[in-house]
Design goal:
two-stranded antiparallel sheet, mainly alpha, single chain, 4 helices, Alpha-Beta Plaits
């Protein structure tokens, strides 16, 4: 589990640089790496979250996906190209229901400028 913490810190720093430089593909790769680390090093994902991430990774319009929150259940986040959101949700939703046995929910959002001092 310590390995996850060490490498996750490095991933966060690289992710910030990737976003600042507009390298969304690299940012997506870092999301994927983070999920795999949470799955295998920290062991905090679970069947449902792993299924969501793995289905997301199969889609061309998805740049990356990972568990979000405290882990051990909860939510996943996926970075999806705007023009592919509908296809992505249909594909992941249908297959998730088939593999897991119940529906998942999707919440769409867009990025903002982030926190700053007013």
């Amino acid at each position: 589990r310590a390995r996850h913490a060490v490498y996750e810190n490095a991933r966060v720093l690289e992710a910030a640089d990737a976003l600042e430089e507009g390298r969304l593909e690299r940012f997506g790769e870092l999301l994927n790496e983070s999920h795999l680390s949470l799955q295998f090093d920290y062991e905090s994902t679970g069947m449902e979250l792993d299924c969501l991430a793995e289905l997301a990774w199969q889609r061309e319009e998805c740049l990356g996906a990972r568990v979000t929150g405290a882990g051990f259940g909860g939510s996943a986040v996926a970075l999806v190209r705007r023009d592919g959101v509908e296809d992505f949700c249909c594909y992941v939703g249908e297959r998730y229901r088939r593999y897991i046995g119940y529906d998942c929910s999707f919440f769409r959002s867009e990025s903002g400028d982030g926190a700053r001092r007013v």
